[in-house]
Amino acid sequence: MKRYETIVIADPDVSEENRTALFERYQGIISQRGGFLVEIDAWRTRPLAYEIKKKGRGFYFRLDYCGVGSLVDEIERFSRIDDHILKYLTILIASDVDLEQIKAETARKKEAEKAASIEAAATPETPQAATTESATAGETVVQPDETPSKE
């Protein structure tokens, strides 16, 4: 099995529901063709270097997946015929990968993210610290010397 990365630029005017449906469609293609989706990384809307289909901005996202050549062909075919996709580019990351190792690595990352979110939720910021920070935000605070200096 090989590991691929596809960068997709979608129409920025597409609604959030349609974007979610687009992500689900890519996930479905990968699972139907016997591949493994490592990650979908949404990069938000960014300006384009030049206009594509009369659009000056695009919604970028990255697909990281493992599969065979026919999977890449199907992803590119879908990207070509979908009107919401402005451009796409697929590159080969690794030609021979251990799928079990990638699955274990992905599971570790998900566990670490889950633990970090639980830890962040468990340690809320104290109200006093928040007030102090907001009161001094953008201001330079000079603390006077506690010991008088001799001149």
Content-based structural category: alpha+beta
For this structure, the CATH topology of the domain at 2-102 is: Alpha-Beta Plaits
Distance between termini? 77 Å
User: Helices and strands, in N-to-C order?
Assistant: EHEEHEHH
CATH class of the domain at 2-102: Alpha Beta
- The gross shape turns out to be globular
Strand percentage = 25-35%
| DSSP E strands, number | 4
pLDDT averaged over residues: 83
| Share of helix, binned | 40-55%
The assigned CATH architecture of the domain at 2-102 is 2-Layer Sandwich
By DSSP (H or I, 4+ residues per run), the number of helices equals 4
Contiguous low-pLDDT stretches (5 residues minimum) are 129-136
What's the arrangement of strands in the largest beta sheet?
Answer: 2-3-1-4
Gyration radius over CA? 24 Å
